[in-house]
Every structure is written in C-alpha cells, then in structure tokens.
What we know:
45% of the residues lie in helices and 5% in strands. It is mainly α. The chain has two domains: 5-85 and 120-142, Winged helix-like DNA-binding domain superfamily/Winged helix DNA-binding domain (Arc Repressor Mutant, subunit A); 86-118. A two-stranded antiparallel ribbon has the order 1-2. α2 (27-34) crosses α3. The chain is elongated, with a radius of gyration of 17 Å. 24% of the residues are buried.
Amino acid sequence: MRTSARTRYALRAAVELAAAPPGPVPAERIAEAQSIPRRFLDNILLQLRRGGLLHSRRGSDGGYWLTRPAEEITLADVVMIIDGVPEGGGPGEYPGVAGALAEVWSALRDHEERLLTEITLADVARGRVPGREAPSGARPDQGGSARCPA
Length: 150
C-alpha cells in the first residue's frame, strides 16, 4: 500500500492527539512531537477539522482535540478524510489473460480497508495493533510504535 506523506503525517498527528491528555493540544506541540513541518501540519489539521475528526479553539489556550474518543476513530477514518475513496481499475484495464489482475487489486484494497477499519487511534497510541506483537524492546511510554503491514 502506498500512502502519501500527507496521509502519514495526518495519521501521526491524529495518534498524537489520541495519546494527549484531555483538552486542546497546540499545533506547534504536535508538529514538534511528530517532526511534521508546521505549515504542512496546519493544512492537514484544517482538513481533519473540516472532515469532522477534530475540534479546534483559537487563542493562547487553544489547540486541537478529537471529536470522539480515540477508541471510536479508526485509521480508515483518517485516511478517508485525507485521501477520499480509493479508485479501482476496472476489468478493461487489464486485457486478455491479465484480466484477473483487476480481481487481485480489488482483493488487496479490500484487505487494506478491513485492516484499517479494525485499528483505532487508541490502539496505535497504546502501542497495540490487533494481531501484531509490539517490536521487541518497544514500550508505548517510550515512543515505541507497532508496525502496521501496509
């Protein structure tokens, strides 16, 4: 699965918000914690807010926070807001004996979608990805991350 830098940054920002204590988190703090260029992050946060995933408040005590509990927001929710619905190649895209490749790509997209809808922001923030063991030595409180087969 190929994901854009924008999607990867959006997922990192959303997980950062999922791991944060309740209340607004300044964009600057998200940018620093996740090494995301601030101007790029601002656009991503705006897109996530317009997509209904985030609330925001301006001012010195402002910032961003999730609209729902992290346990209710899947990675697919974030990806859909950033990338929209993935396009699929139709049967006519692969002529002759290669026609079955359209089914292969369709099955792959279905698998990816199922996986992304099973994993929540809370799972990732806690370093737990269903069906996967955490990398050896990684602890969620030390910035360890579980890898998602993508």
